[in-house]
Amino acid sequence: LQYFFELFRRVCCVANMRRRRRAWTSIPGAMRTLATNSMPPHTTRMQSLLETLLDAPSSGAVALSRAQERTIAACHQGRSVFLHVPTGAGKSLAFQLPALLAPLSHKTIVVSPLIALMQDQVTTLKRRGFEALHVTSDKRPQPLPELLARAQLVYATPEFLLRNTEMRDLVQLLAARGQLARLVIDEAHCILEWGNSFRPSYLELSKWRARHLSGVPMTFATATITDEAIGHIADMFGMNIVDDGTASSDHGAPSGSAATVGDRSQHNDLVLVQDIQDRQNLRLEVLAKPGSMQHAAAMIVRRVGNAPTIVYCLTKKEAEDVCLAIIRAGGNAGVYHGGLSRKRRDFVQKQWMVGKLAVICATTAFGMGIDRPDVQFVYHHSIPATLSSYHQQVGRAGRDGSPAQCVLLYAERDKSRVLSLSGPSDDLDGFASSGLHADVEEMASFCETTGCRKEILFTHFGQVFDATACNRNCNCGEPLAMDETHDEAEDENGDVGFGRSQALSKTKSSQGRSAPNRGAVEVYYQRVLNETKRLGLPKREALSRRVVEAILAHPPETEEAMACIRGVGETKASRFYTVFSDFRRRD
User: Fold this and answer.
1) Where is the composition biased (Polar residues) (predicted)?
2) Calpha distance 256→104 (Å, rounded)
3) Residue range 29-40: average pLDDT?
4) Is 230 buried (19+), middle (13-18) or exposed (0-12) by CB count in 10 A?
5) Among the four residues 179, 212, 356, 525, which has the most C-beta atoms within 10 Å?
6) What is the DSSP letter of 271?
7) CA–CA–CA angle 552, 557, 563 (5° rounding)
8) pLDDT at 256 over 50
9) pTM over 0.85
């Protein structure tokens, strides 16, 4: 009996080890960063919360990405954090977990741009057994203080937080008592993109925080923002950006404890955590836009079938028209935009989430925080206003790791449409007009390049991407072309269309040299901006796009020759000559 008992025990041990090894190896290498022995002091509780938040069984390891680990460590020390990670990388978890680890009496306020986004996150948290609340101007079943008393995570729009006197006073009272663990601004890019246009409450948050919540740490979270915008937001809130290396060493007192709340000097530092990943399961394509909306709709229907699909449109009317065209082409589609009633938007979103609608035609706001990992296609029927918007929207595809396709239908005429809609009209669903012309030109360069589009995307965010290592999951190296199902008869009607062998950039200079590729101009312009930033100079000291184009058209052999180019001069030549060295070698 002892022999069989020992044999049985050993078999069970081996089975457990194999199961744990499978669970460990099923987590991508970049995520296997926290094992039990490297956890903060409240190890068991943290692991239990993680398993519940992730809706996953115990595996013996905590599945956190490196960026999530750094953010949680910084929050654990009571620091303010700016988290910039791709769509689908788990930024919500990075601020939800510290909130749930805080004492029950301590609240975390999450400022969110959309009611639908708040509802989605709160519903998910409640389904997993956590006390969360979203507050709006709608009628409430109980007084606001009683509702807040039970919840650790409280979601609100910036307008409700600042305009509702009862809510504002309650939050300020929590801060005065040292019971406000953290103020989170989710989708932090909205501070600048929307605060400068139709939602000024976003800009007022910084002044309100300075007056009443200066001792409260903050978390800014977004999937789409440039380094320049991060710096601008830090300045608005009176914070100094510091490297996140300081956040991953020792573990101080938990956020919200007496050791952290009230330490104002610490909260003037903003720990920057960035992780721009190459999502290799996404194929990025840019195709010339068919001349008619019905042809574009037919092309989309043939390609996507009944696969989960988002079609982004520039305006509310365009979203409605494209939806109707897709239905006429035999597709199963619905429309979602800010002009519809909340009841209608909720209905369409739920129909799409459960698979009763295959295609949803939407404006830019759709998708923020939507938890659908199996989106196989993201189409852009018109050019997005900015590369940042494009990056965020394509990031909603393939979040389950399966192959997904992101297709942008480009026509040069759409540039003027974007610019014309940036005026007094409110039809452009959520874009600020500040600097829009430069953003649209950058987006057009991305579309028209025959170089690597991923390099342009990474450079836009101040990151480095080796184009030679591109695994061809963007259609780089190919001229802008029509979809293979395109009816070439459209071209005879004067509509925009390009054959596969027909590149956009055919212009010759006066000396017979090919004009530089617009994508190359954008890549080197961004490199100039990065060098300007590295030197600590203001943006006005950089070379303009036009000057960069002139340099690439006739690469100077010496620094002196570069100084002679109009718009350069000796000072700028000495700063930026080396930026173009690899282009001269390739030339």
Assistant:
1) 502-514
2) 10
3) 38
4) buried
5) 525
6) E
7) 75
8) no
9) no
pLDDT, position 266: 61
Q: How far apart are CA 294 and CA 304, in angstroms?
A: 15
Cα–Cα distance for residue pair 236/230, rounded to 1 Å: 10
Burial class of residue 303 (count of CB atoms within 10 Å of its CB; 0-12, 13-18, 19+): middle
Q: List, in order, residues 6 or more apart from 173 with CB less than 8 Å away.
A: none
Amino acid at the residue 43? T
Residue 507: CB atoms within 10 Å: 8
Segment 473-480 shows an average pLDDT of: 61
Cα gap 325→327, rounded to integer Å: 5
| CA 306/CA 358 separation, integer angstroms | 5
Output the six-digit token pair for 515.
């004009």
- Residue written as token pair 């940042």: 388
Q: Are 188 and 222 in contact (CB under 8 A)?
A: yes
H/E stretch holding 155: strand 153-156
Q: Which of 12-26, 331-345, 409-423, 528-542 has the lowest mean pLDDT?
A: 12-26
Phi-psi map region of 581: left, alpha, beta (phi>0 left; psi -120 to 50 alpha): alpha
Distance, in Å, from the CA atom of 265 to the CA atom of 31, rounded to the nearest integer, reads 32
- 222 beta partners: 84
Q: What letter does residue 430 receive in the DSSP assignment? A: T
Report angle CA 237, 240, 244 to the nearest 5 degrees: 120
Tell which residue, 529, 506, 528, has the closest CA to residue 517: 506
Beta-sheet pairing, 282-288 with 269-274: unpaired
| 284: β partners | 406, 474
Confidence of residue 466 (pLDDT cuts 50, 70, 90): confident
| Beta strands 34-35 and 61-62, pairing class | antiparallel
State the pLDDT at residue 408.
95
Find where tokens 């948050």 sit: 205
* Stronger pLDDT, 522 or 17, i.e. the higher one: 522
The number of helices, as runs of H, and strands, as runs of E, in the chain is: 25, 16
Alpha carbon dihedral 417, 420, 457, 547, in 10-degree steps, equals: 110
Helix (H, G, I), strand (E, B) or coil at 191: helix
User: What is the per-residue pLDDT for 503?
Assistant: 36
In sequence order, the 6+-apart residues with CB closer than 8 A to the CB of 57 are 51
